[in-house]
Amino acid sequence: CDLHITEALALTQCLPDDLIEKGKDIKSTSEIEQNGDHFKVTVTTGTKVLVNSFTVGQEADLETLTGEKIKSVVMKEGNKLKVTLKGIESVTELVDGNTLVNTLTLGNIIYKRTSKRV
Q1: How far apart are the first and last CA of the chain?
Q2: What is the tens place of the pLDDT at every residue in 25-77?
Q3: Looking at the whole model, is its pTM more than 0.90?
Q4: Which of 71, 75, 28 is nearest to 55 (CA)?
């Protein structure tokens, strides 16, 4: 998928200005493995690899873009996975077999990323 970090999203993650500039044109690849209600999500952005494993409805340690680990519970509603990390609501929706939409919301700031299967 293509990931373009906007200034608004970067500010919500408290990223330094130099990382905001570097991140604007970085592409990332997401791999999602599912076994029943257990998920493993691996996001590779440049040389950084972020791996989060969780079971729907159970508390898990989830790593943020800044590397911070936060305890939270991922819930599943139909074809959507929902979680809130530090006040940011993340909704990941499998629109069809080839399209994934992730929406991050903090107050009136909304960041939407669409990923296509490769």
Answers
A1: 9
A2: 667 788 888 999 999 988 887 788 889 999 999 999 998 877 888 899 999 99
A3: no
A4: 75
Please give the Cα distance from 94 to 107 (Å, whole number): 24
Buried b (16+ CB within 10 A) or exposed e, 55-73: ebeeebebeebeeeeeebe
Domains plus CATH for the chain?
A: 7-116 (2.40.128.20)
* Rounded CA separation 69/60 (Å): 9
Q: Which residue has the tokens 């999602």?
A: 32
Can you tell me which residue has the tokens 């906007």?
A: 6
Q: At residue 11, what is the residue type?
A: L
Distance CA 43, CA 30 (A): 4
Residue 30: which residues within 8 A CB-CB, separation 6 or more? 1, 41, 42, 43, 44, 100, 115
- Asked if 55 and 42 count as a contact pair (C-beta separation under 8 A), the reply is no
